[in-house]
Amino acid sequence: MAAFVKALNAKIRSNPVSDYFCSTHFWGPASNFGIPLAAVLDTQKSPDLISGQMTGALTVYAFTFMRYSLAVTPKNYLLFACHFTNAGAQLTQGYRYLDYHYWGGKQKLEAAEASKAASGALEKAVAVAPPVATSVPASK
After folding, report:
1. Smaller CB count within 10 Å for the chain: N or C?
2. Is the dihedral of CA 6, 8, 14, 18 positive or negative?
3. Series of mean pLDDT values for 10-residue runs along the chain (140 residues)
4. What angle do CA 41, 21, 12 make, to 5 degrees?
5. Is the pTM for the entire model greater than 0.85?
């Protein structure tokens, strides 16, 4: 059995493509893409759910490992792309956090919700109100 595994490993490692797909240079970034994917999907959620401290930490993490991915030998461009995407998503989340908590975004959102509620109540009142009868006098 050990000879079979050794022969299989030698066969995989002899092909550069399969060697790459069986290495940590591929599977590390591939599994790490969950972080930027989650951050990109979170841009559709309410900004009051964003943690400023976590966004800051993930931004520093992304920039640190963008640098690391190019400092290792051989350069890991897939890891760089992963952290580049993560940095962009975290910077977007950071902007949304600052806008919501410090630049008046909370007030704008509350005003938009109040306006929406008021227009919804007006439409409901118009729909429930009895029709107004109009009579046109007959001409003589």
Report:
1. C
2. negative
3. 81 70 74 88 92 95 95 91 95 95 87 81 65 63
4. 160
5. no
